[in-house]
Amino acid sequence: MAGPRAGTGVVVRGFRALPAPVLLLPALGGWVSGSLAAEAAQRRLFPWLAVAFGAGALLFLTVADGPVFLAAPFGVGLALAGAAFACRARAVAPAILLAAAFLSLGFAAAATRTMSVAAPVLARTVIAPLHGFVEALEEREEGARLVVRVTRLGEMAAPERPTRVRVSYRRADGIKPGDYIEAKARLLPPPEPARPGGYDFARDAYFRGIGAVGSLLGQAAIKPPPEPAPLSLRLAAGLDEARNALTRRIAESNGGQAGAVAAALVTGKRGLIDQPTNDALRAAGIYHVVSISGLHMVLAAGVVFWLARALLALGPGLALSWPIKKIAAAFAMVGVTGYCAFSGWDLAAERSLVMTLVMLGAILVDRPALSLRNLALAALISLAREPEGLLGPSFQMSFGAVAGLIACARLIDGRLWNPEGAGPITRALAWCLATVIGTLATTLVAQIATAPFATYHFQTVQPFGLVGNALTLPLVSLVVMPAAVLGILATPFALDRPVWWTMGLAVRGMIDISAWIEGFDRATLVLPAFGPGALGLMTVALLLLVLPVSGLRWLGLIPGLLGIALAASPVRPDLYVDREGGGAALRGADGRLVVLGKPPAFGLEQWLKADGDGRSREDPGLSAGARCDKLGCVGHGPGGVSVALVRDKRAFPEDCARATVVISRLEAPPGCAAKHVLDRIFLAAHGATTLRFTAEGAVIETAKRPGETRPWRPAPVVKAAGPPAPPVPGPAPRPAPAPPEGEAEEGQGEP
Questions:
Q1: What is the chain's percent helix, strand, coil content, to nearest 5?
Q2: Chain mean pLDDT for the chain
Q3: Please, are residues 348 and 297 in contact by the beta-carbon 8 Å criterion?
Q4: Which residues contact 272 (CB under 8 A, 6 or more apart)?
């Protein structure tokens, strides 16, 4: 007996001598197993399938390079799903196999969507006669913006000709959607990111079917079409013309910016809102109210649902013998779908419509409307239809906000503030308290849930957004959206003007509140851009904090804290270079950016925001410290680095001999001795470029990789090295135009 006891004692003493974390592993494993069992019992594993589906779509959109054989991801996904069904009796294997299956199916969905919208993308600047149908028209402060379905573009062959182009036009009088026009147009490829990791308008334009952007030169002539327009185009054009007509009617009923904002709330046409009003709404943190999104869909559905149920309840026989709640939900589904169609089927609005329809559909089948399962189902439907939306702020912020609100629903629904058995006065006071606290809590939860995505995409924070939303959302909920629904119903009877006037009073109050908040010190803070790694960690943290019901949610604190730490200490480049070499921004002696040359306005604005610099792009101090002449510009950066921007080829000999970095939209001579040459050939292959100067040398990041195959990026047209080509007759090429106001901020803050 002595032997076994001695051996056991050695084992026990050795086990006790292990480090404390090792001793905790069995307990930790038991805790994880118990938590997973609790998640399965509560049926909370389904939302993670939507996460896996989105991860597969993200994998294709960011990593896949080249065409995909669709049978491969679809086949793998179906095989894994079949394996999960075969292993359904086991505890863990089916969940892992299903997650892998949805990952593969998400990859396949993104590949299918990319192939289905494939259309030619313009590869070079073109000035030529444009013939086509006006598919959509948005009136702006000056002129209009048109989407034209192209039938002919100069002598360009059909395989190279874009299917749709978006152009600005300063004289849009007389043109309406559905017209066939002929005009001389100056078209450019859709702009690529202004900096590595920045907003990619070219990708968004590709999925919208837009193959070029530009402007119309001179007068556009309306002519008889060579053939009848397709039925789909006639329907879309008719709907767009009705939206424009109602936009003008609402704007005229109120006048000024109140009318412009009121019209945008109803029709989604934001072109009449001027820049100061846009800035004020953003400073107050309520710009999401202007973009047709989840807030509008929920409020519109709620108004229709309440009206239908109230009218049905007037008949005692109906109320007692018919399921009026379900009937009202069906009316709300029809009404909110019509509202989405009339607002233009915008990507954000369509996604919010899916979410609203899923939740209304839950009422029809006697299930809770507001649940994470419904949210996950809405996410799956949205991602299956338009996987590319996953990369934009609209999807991320809307689903993040709703997920946060669902997770905190018990804390903000007011039940904690409603005492049972109290008198009428106490109940009234409790209702007021619950309303105020509920509004503040809802706004706070939505802002926290969307803060990582808003800061990543826009580099701005509105510290007083809680105040702005608390003061304006009651106006939107109680006056603006009910008036919008009643106004649309009254429009066919020409009884809508008093409704629009009433709505305008509330909108005017919103604008006044926004202007008041904009006057606060530091109403808008500009923060340096952080990388996708920090955003990914914070996204994982949000998912872990929201989706589980067990103690597993506390695991989200680890990636959350790591993500915040990374976001709080971003690495800022010392040199930003325009994708065409026409301008750059170099960190000067005072640590702030100095502009060299003439970069595009939109690109310069993106550089300043990414650097955490709150100066406007018109600030005269941006050029202080740069020495420029007709041949180019020279600036000095950190560590004595010299940067030369060459405008004229005569400057190459001197700048190549002296400068550390040479930048030019021209082709540098083969013998250029500069350490880094960012000329036309380099930038055509790499796009916008940033450099960070360290003791070990320059760290270079580019917007694209040479040879990278993306369908929304046409292959660069670069000639072999040699003497510069003679100039092409006609207007000199200019940098690609900035996306018009609102493109880069579409969907901002749309909980």
A1: 55, 15, 30
A2: 83
A3: no
A4: 139, 140, 141, 247, 251, 259, 260, 263, 264
State the Cα–Cα distance between residues 426 and 424, nearest whole angstrom: 5
Identify whether the C-beta of residue 594 lies closer than 8 Å to the C-beta of residue 622: yes
Residue 193 in contact with residue 200, Cβ under 8 Å? yes
Among 170, 134, 142, 342, CA closest to 247: 342
660-665 average pLDDT score? 94
pLDDT of residue 564: 94
What's the gap between Cα 26 and its chain centre? 44
Q: What are phi and psi of 690, to 5 degrees?
A: -125, 150
- Among 30, 108, 25, 28, which Cα is nearest to 64's? 108
Provide the 3-class DSSP secondary structure of residue 668: coil
Q: Quick check: pTM over 0.70? A: yes
pLDDT at 485 over 70: yes
Tokens of 499: 């409704």
623-648 core/surface letters (b: 16 or more CB in 10 A; e: else): bebbebeebbbbbbbeeebbbbbbbe
SS3 letters for 529-559? CCCHHHHHHHHHHHHHHHCCCCHHHHHHHHH
Specify burial of residue 742 (Cβ count, 10 A radius: 0-12, 13-18, 19+): middle
Q: Dihedral of the CA atoms 414, 420, 426, 432 (nearest 10)?
A: 10
In order, the DSSP letters of 703-749 are SS-TT---TTSPPP--PPSSSPPPPPSSSPP-PPPPPPTTSTTTTTT
CB-based contact 167:145 (threshold 8 Å)? yes
Nearest to 656 by CA among 678, 673, 636: 673
CA 337 to mean position of chain CA atoms = 22
Q: In what order do the strands lie in the sheet with 627-628?
A: 627-628, 632-636, 642-646, 661-664, 676-678
Q: Which runs of E-coded beta strand occur in 592-675? A: 593-597, 627-628, 632-636, 642-646, 661-664
User: Has residue 100 got a pLDDT over 60?
Assistant: yes
Q: Which residues contact 544 (CB under 8 A, 6 or more apart)?
A: 552, 553, 555, 556, 559
Tell me the pairing of strands 180-188 and 126-139.
Answer: antiparallel
The pair of structure tokens assigned to 169 is 């036009």
Pick from 411, 476, 418: which is nearest to 445 by CA? 411
Judged by DSSP in three states, 580 sits in coil
Determine contact, residues 254/506, Cβ cutoff 8 Å: no
Between strands 661-664 and 642-646, the pairing is parallel
Measured CA to CA, the distance from residue 716 to residue 701 in angstroms comes to 19
Average pLDDT (727-734) is: 34
* AA letter at 262: A
Can you give the pLDDT at residue 422? 60
Q: How far apart are CA 580 and CA 189, in angstroms?
A: 12
Across 423-504, where does the E strand assignment appear? Answer: 460-461
The CA distance from 529 to 197, in Å, is: 10
Q: What is the DSSP letter of 291?
A: S
Greatest CA span in the chain, whole angstroms? 107
* The 3-state secondary structure of 158-203, one letter per residue: CCCCCCEEEEEECCCCCCCCCCEEEEEEEEECCCCCCCCCCCCHHH
Here the tokens at position 694 are 């360290």
Distance from C-alpha of 160 to C-alpha of 528, rounded to nearest angstrom: 40
